[in-house]
Amino acid sequence: MFFERPDSGEGAILVHIDFPEGAEKEDPREFEELVRSAGLDTLSLVTGTRSTPDPRIYIGKGKLEEVREAVEFYEAELVLFNHALSPSQQRNLEVELECRVVDRTGLILDIFAQRARTHEGKLQVELAQLQYQATRLVHGWSHLDRQKGGYGMRGTGETQSEADRRMLRDREKVINKRLAKVQSQRDQGRRARKRSATPTVSLVGYTNAGKSTLFNAITNAEVYAADQLFATLDPTLRRMNVPGMGEIVLVDTVGFIRHLPHKLVEAFKATLQETKEADLLLHVIDCADDDRQLNMEQVEIVLDEIEALDRPTLQVFNKIDMVPGATSKIDRDEKGLPWRVWVSAKDRNGLELVHQAIGELLSTTLFEKVIEIEPKDGQLRSLLYAHNAVLSESIEDNGNIKLEIRLEKDDFQRMLSRAGVPVERYIPQEKEDWQK
Questions:
Q1: Which residue of 58, 59, 94, 319 has the lowest C-beta tally within 10 Å?
Q2: What is the separation, in whole angstroms, between the first and last Cα of the chain?
Q3: Residue that finishes a domain, picked among 102, 135, 157
Q4: How many CB atoms lie within 10 A of CB 233?
Q5: In angstroms, rounded to a whole number, what is the distance separating the alpha carbons of residues 396 and 376?
Q6: 78 and 210 fall within a common domain
């Protein structure tokens, strides 16, 4: 993009190095899935073991020669590393191998660029790509001299890489302004849903866990779903009815992955805000995956990074059709509340249990009943109307006002406190739970 590189072909040489347990460890099977999702063919997988990465070329000289032989044998134009390379390591490898080298972060960014469909998604991907490429300009224009200065052509002027950085910064500012506008629109939508007491449920989970298939099955939507990593990138919202609860908003989000590039998390903050402020998270898990537990931990790491780990969560063990003897059911905690549902979204098995579990869990976060307030509590009535929480109103013979209300419990508690009305007057049996 910013310096001359050979165009990538459809086939690639893959390089995976095993390190001791730690930050550098990656999964070679997941790497091959990423490559397939990018629309590339694996020509050869070169593996090896090292204690630490080489600071210059990441791999050792012997392994470098093995990769070079594979490149020459297959006449490959692209080498993919299942690791994050520094800009200097990437450039050194390209010089040594005489072909294009892309690391894990670059590969994921390319997949995201292919998947983006909405204006917002494209902006988010472009922002992440610009931030990624900005660190890779140091050596890209090393073959060019400085540009000339101004009047009289004197002075050192600025280097081409400096000019590129300036253009990148200008473009980032434009994108950030546009994303800020998108975020403002999303915030308005969330506030409107909150005022109408419409609960939001957000699907989260490791990529390819079946979130979009589940989303389509329980909302009768037609979101793109495929057996590939990051099939869904742009968030999708659909309204659906839950027995005993009424209408809710369900959000399908981008899948997570181990070592999800931080630049992507930053770029997608507006989208991930839906998850952070959801009333309930559905953590969709591929229960047939051997790395199920590790994938769950990686999702929790990302949720913690976006400050959503404290959200009420229901685990959805999907793909029971691939687990011999598994049946649809609800697992409950010591309080009798659902904490896990076993389903097969593909076969539409157990979907009614998902609706049931969502209804039970959301009913514990909503306050919906008929209350009677005295005329002197007019401030409470005004606050309830300002929050669009009043469903109906009638006047009693004694002058009291009977209101049918529906809103979040936390919001109602704050209104009672602001209006100076004791909580015990309306919900004495739940006071202790609210004050935890």
A1: 94
A2: 54
A3: 102
A4: 23
A5: 14
A6: no
